[in-house]
Structures are given as structure tokens and as C-alpha cells.
Design brief:
heterodimer; A: about 220 residues; 6-stranded mixed β-sheet; 4-stranded antiparallel β-sheet; B: about 425 residues; alpha+beta; 14 helices; 14 strands
Chain lengths: ~220, ~425
């Protein structure tokens, strides 16, 4: 579960500073599929970055699974992201020198738990419909396929929460639908908590709840 | 909960360290294998040529020093020089000492020399008055036993005109190039005989008043300006007749000892001293005089050029790897975002840079060893001091390899560490 209290984020200093978030309070329950929506510049990506520990708020508190994550050191945050959170980015974010399978199991290598991660990576690629493309490199996959590999990679360490920052922004309509259906499937079948930023109104049909942002404030949650 | 999480993170420490190492190696390996082939080849070539650049200058200077050392050994001093006792001008009973020296293991051959000097004149009949200096000067005259001398030095191979002395030559003389003068001499013409040639007559006036005429039998051009090219050589028998046979028959100014190939000079000197002789026993190096200061100067210059070369090479390598790392800035951001530990990311770039340095060093070493060195062996540089080939010193090889390796590690560490200090978002989006 994510609980955010009085989140503020100010970029820059002095008169030119931008107040991107102006006191956001929200709660996202375990197993929810939530969309954060709003116009460009409303602060939705900023909110996702703060919740996903990719950036620090200017003030406020964030608890994830009862852990006050803002009190973690940078090293602990990295470890927390690795073990508890998964990310799917707006643009293709695969490592070009790795195959689809290697991209997926990459975050597991440094945990060094056992060799089962390769098997699990194959299963995940099967789940996202790319079981036949294991040895393909990023450059040999379409945009939609790359995003699906990125989703599989985000799930490899069985994260509590999956963050997706406009995951369909670079995709054609057909690939977008495939990715969103995949999110829905993961949410329903694996009870995966998903927090997705999107500006596409059509995406609302796939999610449980929409958090609308405008000018750094929540309008509707 | 926070406490519990921190404890869990710490408990996983050992696994994490191993995992990070594994991941760093994995990322570096994949990046090298699957990265741009041409970039890889160019990077390794840059490293290789940087290494060659480092080695080449020091090897050339080392080659010059080796040539100078060899000249001193081959033409002037051989390996070990026995000099008179400190209170004497000559070695007494030299023939007995020579025999003693020949019995010592490691000694290949022995010869004695008589040193004297003379006022040498050329075309003296053309002088217009007694005060006319004409073509003349005072030089060292060395009396040698030609047969034995040829067993110890190789001066006889450095004749550019004429022949070497025979055992029974009396009125024949060998002149060093810097005495004879002429086109190849580097000494100013008026300080030489101005071009004496084989077959010409020269007149020698010795300090004891003896004056004799000789025919120039050969001209030595050893390119060793300190002594070999500034000596006049006559037979020992001839010099004995000048100095006084009765007194000087069993005397020598120096006894030169040539060591067997591969013999340890220092050990040989120790063995000679152990025989109890009271004459001075020195290495050729001790007689280097001005030469040794030239060698030391070259050594310092070599070190300076080597240091500058290392800095330049390290900088080139640093820039190339730095650009390579910066090109992967977004990838580094993504890796950080998905929780890959900083140490694993930095480690992967250090491994890559280290690989480039090692690969470059190996290719560079191969170029030096299999291309440059053989080439200069066959086609040595014809420098004023002699024919110079490359002489690669192990220390220079190791130093250059270590220097490039260190530069490689820094080139991988600094840019990736710098990127780690930036926020993840700005690294990913390039803001």
C-alpha cells in the first residue's frame, strides 16, 4: 500500500521556481490498478517519480508497505526499487546489448539468490506473449514488443508495485491496446498493484480508479 | 518496519557483493561483445597506439644508450679494465698478470695497451715557417698487440678505409676519423689533420722527443667521439721502441678483459679482485666519463618524455572512454531506476575500460615486439652516434602497461561516478 501525505515538489529556486506538486495526499491500496491522469504539466509524471523513489519531494511523506521510504539512504532506496518496485518507462528503455531474456533477468542477477531467475524470466516473457523472442535484441523487436519486454523486466523480482510512466505514448494503437490488456491481465490474475500515468482518456476503461491532477493538485481520486 | 528493512538489506550484503560483481562483469562483457564493432576496434587501436607511443620513444632512447654502451665496450674499454696501482703510472709485469687473468672463469680474452700521446702533423713540408701550425694537433697514441686486440675489441671492423695493423708493422699507423678529418669527421676541420687519407704520411713527435714518420694504413670511423675516433693506433712493438724497450717491455697502461657472452660483469670483477691483484679493477662503466653523463642525461630525458607520453596517452584514452560512457548516459539512468546498484554500474564501466586498456596493451606490445623491433633490427636508424635499433626495457613495458591500466580504470570510474551523482530523472531525460 502507498500512502502519500502533503507532497510538495518545487523545481528551481527564487522567482523562476516551478511548484509542480502543491500538497498531494493519496492512498493506493494493494492490488489496485490506478491511473494518474491530467494535462501536460499537471504534475502527474512528477508524482509518479516521487512515489517510485526516482526523485525526492521538497516536502511531505511517503509510506510504502509501512516503510517511510524517504528516510532510506540512496543505497537502500536502490535496493528497495530493485526488490519492491517495478518500472515501465515512456520510451523504450531496454539495454541494446542484451537479448529480451537477458533484459528481463538483468535485475535479478545482482540479487544472486539462485539460478531460478532465468526460468522465471522465460515464464514472464511467455506471459507477455514473447516466449518465441527470447534471443532477440532490442533493435530486432517492435516498439510494442520492447514495451512488453520492459513489463516482464519490471516484474522479474516480483515487485509489490509496478509503476508505468505513459507506457503507450510511443506505441501505435494496436500495440497500446496489447500493453494495456497485459496490465489488466497482470492486475487481475497476479493481483499486481499498478500505478500508471497516462493522458489518454481511452485508457480509463482498463483501470480500477483514476487520480486526476491539475496544476499540482488532486482534483478527483 | 524501516529498521526491519535496513536489517534485511544488511543481511543480504554478501550475496549482494557477489551479485554486483557478477552483474558488472556481465554488463561489461555484453557491452563489449554486442557494442559497435568498429568503435571497439578503434578504441583498442587508440590504446594500442598510445602504448606504442609510450614504448617507442623510451625504446629509441634506450637504443641510443645501448648503442653508446656497446661502442664503449666494443671499441674502447671491453668489459673490465685493469689499471695501474694507485701509486703507479703503469702496470708492472703485465704479461704475468695477463696470464693470471686468462685463467679466471668467465674471461674470454685479454689484451694490454700502452698509452702515450704525440704531436701529429700532416703535410708538414708545406709549412711556411716554424710558427705555422699547419695541419696538426696532439692526440692519444695507443700501442696495441693487433692479434690480441682483435680478440678483445672490434675496432678493426670499423675501418672505413685501408687495413688494420699487422703484428710486425712499424711505420704504419691507424688514425681515428676525428684526427684524420674529412667529410665524415664532426670535429671542426682546423682541429683535425684536415683530410689525411690512407697512404698519406704523418709525422709524430712524442713527448720524449722521439720523432717518427708513419704511413696511414687505415682510418677508423667508430662514431664514438669520446675516444675511439680520437685515437691513433700503432703496434705495441712500435710504441715500445719509442718509449724504451728495456723499461717498457713488461709494462702496460691498461689491460682490457673481455667477458664470455652472458657472463655477469660484476661477478667477474669480484672474481678478478679475489685473486688478490693490487691493480685497479673497474667496469667499462667507470671509465665512461663524459659518456656516462650523456647516458644519464638521456635517461632523464627518456623519463620525462615517457611521463609526458603517459599523460598524453592516458588523456586520449580517458577522452575516448569518457565519450563512450557519456553516450550511454540514458542507459545508466535506466539501470539506476530499476534498482541496479551504483557499484555494479560503475564496475561495469571500469571493467570495460580496463579491458580496452589491456587489449590495447596486448595489441601494442605485439606491434612493438613483432613489427617495430624486427623492422629496426633489419633497418636500424643511421644516427650520427651510430646505427640505432629499438631497445625495449622490461621496466618501460611494465610501467606503460600499468600506466595505461590505471588510466583505463580512472577513465571508467570518473565519468560513470559523475553520472551517479546526478539525479536519475535528469540522467534518463538528459535534462
Amino acid at each position: 500500500m502507498i500512502i502519500a501525505r502533503e507532497l510538495h515538489k518545487i523545481y528551481g529556486h527564487g522567482p523562476g521556481a516551478t511548484h509542480a506538486l502543491k500538497g498531494v495526499d493519496l492512498t493506493i491500496r494493494k492490488g489496485e490498478f490506478v491511473a494518474i491522469m491530467g494535462r501536460s504539466g499537471s504534475g502527474k509524471s512528477t508524482l509518479l517519480h516521487l512515489l517510485g523513489l526516482l526523485d525526492k519531494p521538497t516536502s511531505g511523506e511517503i509510506d510504502i508497505d509501512d516503510i517511510d521510504v524517504l528516510r532510506l539512504s540512496e543505497r537502500e532506496k536502490a535496493r528497495f526499487r530493485l526488490e519492491k518496485l517495478g518500472y515501465v518507462f515512456q520510451e523504450y528503455s531496454l539495454i541494446g546489448e542484451l537479448t529480451a531474456l537477458e533484459n528481463v533477468y538483468l535485475p535479478s542477477v545482482c540479487l544472486n539468490r539462485n539460478n531460478g531467475y532465468k526460468k522465471y524470466a522465460r515464464e514472464l516473457l511467455d506471459i507477455v506473449g514473447l516466449g518465441e523472442r527470447l534471443t532477440h535484441y532490442a533493435g530486432e523487436l517492435s516498439g510494442g514488443e520492447q514495451q512488453r519486454v520492459a513489463i516482464a523486466r519490471a516484474l522479474i523480482n516480483k515487485p509489490g508495485i509496478l509503476f508505468a510512466d505513459e507506457p503507450t505514448a510511443s506505441l501505435d494503437a494496436e500495440s497500446s491496446v496489447t500493453v494495456l490488456k497485459l496490465f489488466k491481465k497482470l492486475n487481475k490474475e497476479l493481483k499486481q498493484t499498478i500505478v500508471m500515468v497516462t493522458h489518454e482518456p481511452d485508457d480509463e476503461v482498463y483501470v480500477d480508479r483514476v487520480i486526476r491532477l491539475s496544476n499540482g493538485l488532486i482534483l478527483d481520486a | 518496519m524501516l529498521q526491519k528493512y535496513n536489517t534485511a538489506v544488511q543481511a543480504a550484503g554478501k550475496h549482494v557483493v557477489l551479485g554486483n560483481f557478477k552483474l558488472a562483469l556481465f554488463l561489461a562483457f555484453k557491452s563489449i561483445i554486442k557494442g559497435n564493432r568498429w568503435a571497439l576496434v578503434l578504441l583498442i587501436l587508440v590504446m594500442a597506439f598510445s602504448f606504442v607511443n609510450l614504448i617507442f620513444v623510451s625504446a629509441l632512447i634506450s637504443g641510443i644508450m645501448t648503442t653508446m654502451d656497446n661502442q664503449m665496450i666494443s671499441y674502447v674499454y671491453s668489459n673490465v679494465v685493469i689499471g695501474p696501482r694507485e701509486d703507479k703510472y703503469y702496470i708492472e709485469k703485465s704479461s704475468r698478470l695477463e696470464e693470471k687473468l686468462r685463467q679466471i672463469p668467465g674471461v674470454a680474452s685479454v689484451t694490454s695497451r700502452l698509452d702515450y700521446s704525440a704531436f701529429i702533423e700532416y703535410q708538414w713540408k708545406q709549412k711556411v715557417s716554424q710558427k705555422d701550425k699547419g695541419k696538426s694537433g696532439t692526440w692519444e697514441v695507443v700501442g696495441v698487440d693487433p692479434e690480441q686486440e682483435m680478440q678483445v675489441t672490434t675496432l678493426h671492423n670499423q675501418l672505413i678505409n685501408g687495413k688494420y695493423l699487422d703484428e710486425y708493422d712499424r711505420d704504419q699507423i691507424i688514425l681515428g676519423m676525428e684526427i684524420a678529418g674529412g667529410l665524415k669527421a664532426r670535429t671542426a676541420d682546423f682541429l683535425t689533420l684536415g683530410g689525411a687519407s690512407v697512404g698519406d704520411k704523418v709525422r709524430l713527435t712524442y713527448p720524449n722527443g722521439v720523432q717518427r714518420e708513419y704511413t696511414v694504413k687505415g682510418i677508423v670511423y667508430a662514431r664514438e667521439m669520446q675516444r675511439a675516433d680520437r685515437m691513433a693506433i700503432v703496434t705495441r712493438e712500435e710504441l715500445l721502441s719509442v718509449l724504451g724497450r728495456d723499461i717498457y717491455l713488461d709494462r702496460a697502461s691498461q689491460i682490457l678483459v673481455r667477458a664470455q657472452d652472458g657472463a655477469d660483469e660484476a661477478a667477474l670483477i669480484a672474481d678478478i679482485k679475489a685473486t688478490g691483484i693490487r691493480e685497479q679493477v673497474n667496469s667499462w662503466r667507470d671509465y665512461g666519463g663524459g659518456q656516462s653523463s650523456v647516458v644519464s642525461t638521456f635517461d632523464v630525458i627518456g623519463s620525462l618524455i615517457g611521463s609526458v607520453g603517459l599523460i598524453v596517452s592516458a588523456t586520449v584514452m580517458f577522452i575516448v572512454i569518457y565519450i563512450n560512457v557519456l553516450n550511454k548516459k540514458r542507459q545508466i539512468g535506466i539501470l539506476r531506476a530499476i534498482g541496479i546498484p551504483e557499484i555494479a554500474i560503475i564496475g561495469s564501466y571500469i571493467f570495460q575500460a580496463f579491458f580496452f586498456a589491456v587489449a590495447g596493451t596486448i595489441v601494442g606490445w605485439a606491434l612493438v615486439n613483432f613489427v617495430l623491433q624486427p623492422y629496426f633490427q633489419f633497418y636500424p636508424l643511421d644516427l650520427p652516434i651510430g646505427l640505432v635499433s629499438l631497445h625495449v626495457r622490461t621496466m618501460a613495458l611494465v610501467g606503460s602497461a600499468l600506466g595505461l591500466g590505471t588510466a583505463g580504470v580512472l577513465a571508467g570510474l570518473i565519468p560513470s561516478w559523475t553520472i551517479m551523482r546526478q539525479s536519475i530523472i535528469s540522467v534518463i531525460w538528459g535534462t
